């Protein structure tokens, strides 16, 4: 059980930690400068996408997509819920303080950057031919070529 849920919890914690650091930097470092805070927020989303791209690249080499895809989706969902509902309290606000538009905008930005990060990582992995399926097919082809042709007697 621990082996199944520990990676999900760690990834969700790392993604939420990136959010916490970005919010604290924006709150204490730049106070009322909304333009800089928006840039920090965009940088946070880019960092989350980069972490997920790297993780998809690494996990895709060792395990097939259905094995790690669900774990990653669950971790992203948990981190997004924490980011949306707990994150505003860290920066001295409330989840719906800026209105429903800002709330749903944050959901779409988070979903877009996380999905984009995973796709970029997995597509790069596939383009380089290092994904699990390509490696399995390569090993199969090598095994087939290494065996001598079987002679059929009649």
Counted by DSSP, the helix tally is: 6
What is the straight-line distance between the termini?
Answer: 55 Å
Category by helix and strand content: mainly alpha
Percentage of residues assigned to helices: over 70%
Average pLDDT across residues?
88
Nearest-angstrom radius of gyration? 21 Å
Backbone shape: elongated
Strand tally, please?
A: 0
Major beta sheet summary:
none
Low-confidence stretches: none
* Estimated share of beta-strand residues: under 5%
Order of helices and strands: HHHHHH
**Oligomeric status:** single chain
Describe this structure in words.
Helix 1 (2-30) packs parallel to helix 3 and helix 2 packs parallel to helix 5 (100-127). Helices cover 82% and strands 0% of the residues. The protein has helices spanning 2-30, 34-62, 65-85, 87-90, 100-127, 132-146. The relative contact order is 0.13. By secondary structure, the chain is mainly alpha-helical. The protein is elongated. The chain is built from 6 helices and no strands. The longest helix has 29 residues, at 2-30.
Outline:
This protein is mainly alpha-helical and 154 residues long. The chain is built from six helices and no strands.
Helix and strand topology:
Elements: H1 2-30, H2 34-62, H3 65-85, H4 87-90, H5 100-127, H6 132-146
Helix pairs in contact: 1-2, 1-3, 2-5
Which descriptors apply to this entry?
single chain; 154 residues; mainly alpha; 6 helices
